[in-house]
Amino acid sequence: MNKEKQQSDFWDDYSEDFDAIYSHEKSKFNNLLDKVFRQDMYERFQFTIEESQPISDRTILDVGCGPGYYSLAYARQGAKKVIGIDYSEKMIRLANERMKKENLGGNCQFLVEDIKDYNPDLKFDISVAIGLFDYIKDPLPYLIKMRELTNEKIILTFPRLYTWRVPIRKIRLMIKKLDVYFYSKGRLKILLESAGLKKYKIVDIGKLHCVVVFIDK
What's the total number of domains in the chain? Predict the structure, then answer.
């Protein structure tokens, strides 16, 4: 089984549990655990939305969109067009269900797609990939493709290498047969510049490197 198929199967199986992290549809105790151990997930959401402003009337690509929380937040704030892509069919099903429930289909669309194979008929003002590169062994082709598809700004997250959570997370996901990758700031800078992304800022939030790339016009 190739890595992408293995990851797709993992996220299909984990889709509802992952969705509950954002929907909080779980017990009070498990919500408390999320608040303690996953606080940076909520902080990265706020960071991403703030760095995307102004959102109104802009086109946005959400790579590895999962159950669609970022995409739908953009749609609610008046984005002209939002495309969310993910290679997990169950994640896309959850995103579509939430989109229909909120009646946001007019400016939002979800696709089962791999960014490397995605060839839309437009370029996006903003592209985001939040939580994607935790599980990608070679991010370079993904970053190059995002650069090609983006006019103004790319927002990304990468898990930091030197934190106490690294060995715990590696062991937990190794048991589930899912690889996870961590980044020093030095390696991250080399990676971004190798992809032709020369103008950027890196902000550390919790156990994450949050990156905003500015595309030269």
Answer: 1
